[in-house]
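Subject: design request, 404 residues
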């Protein structure tokens, strides 16, 4: 898969690549954060049409998320997001999305660095560039897509242009999913407090219509599609990992580099991979999970490429190892008072008899099922006994998943 990473000029214009003077393309446009089942339906349609007509399949992605850019600009007199500022609500970082697009069979991915100047480009200009520079023959969009300045390029307006000019065709995919739900505008972390001995749950599932109205009014919850990145973030914040995975169509995952931690797990007989900050991807609620630890190799070999690089070619991702794991997210309440360390950390204990040295390696942590909330234990022995139980649970869950 060829990748182009483009940086708009000060006036928002973009130097779009010329793919081929003879061969046309099928294009879709979006953020694709999480690349959930709705996104997959759109991308799969792009690939399907492209293969049928022997055209390029092209996905245009925006990074950072437009919502993040506009929110920052609103609070900072229209300024663009600094490169050093991380988007805490990003489900899946751009390089992981690119890997997933390659797995779906996409020929060309174009990552546009989203700026406020670029946001002011009209959808008419944008469509003209896609036709003129990318040779767009078909544009594939989800049902509620909107392009260009002030999102004026609605599906209805784009269809009128396509039908009236004959320059390209519009193909609209049903990406809505099972329906709509409501999500609070701010995730405070309070939703993620799970009591000992209980499993996290989605409170909306058991609400009557009257209760839902009262809950929505109290929290000023907004109406969103169930199959949306917003709803998936909410489920992850609750710790309802299986529901989130069902919407994603795969296990939710984050990535980072293994660093030296307190090495307390080693003394307890459970050496863990301590994933250092920053972690790429959205961390679910604090707790212990069953999942997978995937070794992606030394970080200097798997690090992301320069964001402004004009062109690169992505090869297939190589896994250097994959192990069932019990995964911990939290502040280590058993020892935090003693150590004075209260930072939220991500650790994964690979369930294997082999000695693993993953320091300096980039790893992916995949979440399969919630096991328990973070608990303060009375002693190291009590914690060790619980860790043994968690490892057994995680192993059984992962083995069962492999057999499905």
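Subject: RE: design request

Done. Sequence follows.
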């Amino acid at each position: 898969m060829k990748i182009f990473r483009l940086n708009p000029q000060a006036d928002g214009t973009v130097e779009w690549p010329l793919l081929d003077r003879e061969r046309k393309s099928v294009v879709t446009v979006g953020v694709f954060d999480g690349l959930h089942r709705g996104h997959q339906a759109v991308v799969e349609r792009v690939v399907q049409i492209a293969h049928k007509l022997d055209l390029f399949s092209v996905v245009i992605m925006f990074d950072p998320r437009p919502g993040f850019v506009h929110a920052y600009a609103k609070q900072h007199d229209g300024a663009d997001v600094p490169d050093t500022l991380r988007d805490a609500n990003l489900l899946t970082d751009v390089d992981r999305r690119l890997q997933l697009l390659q797995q779906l069979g996409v020929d060309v991915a174009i990552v546009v660095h989203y700026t406020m100047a670029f946001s002011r480009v009209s959808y008419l200009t944008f469509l003209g560039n896609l036709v003129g520079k990318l040779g767009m023959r078909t544009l594939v969009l989800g049902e509620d897509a909107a392009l260009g300045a002030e999102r004026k390029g609605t599906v209805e307006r784009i269809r009128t242009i396509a039908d009236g000019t004959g320059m390209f065709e519009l193909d609209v995919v049903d990406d809505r999913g099972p329906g709509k739900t409501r999500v609070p505008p701010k995730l405070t972390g309070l939703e993620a407090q799970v009591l000992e001995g209980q499993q996290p749950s989605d409170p909306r599932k058991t609400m009557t219509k009257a209760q839902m109205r009262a809950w929505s009014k109290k929290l000023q919850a907004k109406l969103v599609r169930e199959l949306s990145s917003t709803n998936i973030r909410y489920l992850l914040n609750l710790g309802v990992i299986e529901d989130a995975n069902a919407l994603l169509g795969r296990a939710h995952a984050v990535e980072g580099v293994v660093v030296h931690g307190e090495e307390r797990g080693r003394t307890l007989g459970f050496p863990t991979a301590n994933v250092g900050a920053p972690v790429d991807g959205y961390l679910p609620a604090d707790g212990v999970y069953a999942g997978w630890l995937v070794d992606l190799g030394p970080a200097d070999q798997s690090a992301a490429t320069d964001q402004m690089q004009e062109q690169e070619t992505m090869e297939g991702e190589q896994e250097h190892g994959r192990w069932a794991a019990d995964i911990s997210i939290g502040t280590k309440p058993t020892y935090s008072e003693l150590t004075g360390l209260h930072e939220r950390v991500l650790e994964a204990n690979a369930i294997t008899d082999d000695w693993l040295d993953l320091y300096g390696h980039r790893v992916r942590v995949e979440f399969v099922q919630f096991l328990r909330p973070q608990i303060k234990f009375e002693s190291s022995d009590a914690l060790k006994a619980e860790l043994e139980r968690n490892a057994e649970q995680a192993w059984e869950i992962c083995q069962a998943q492999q057999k499905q």
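The chain has three domains: 2-173, 181-250, 252-404.
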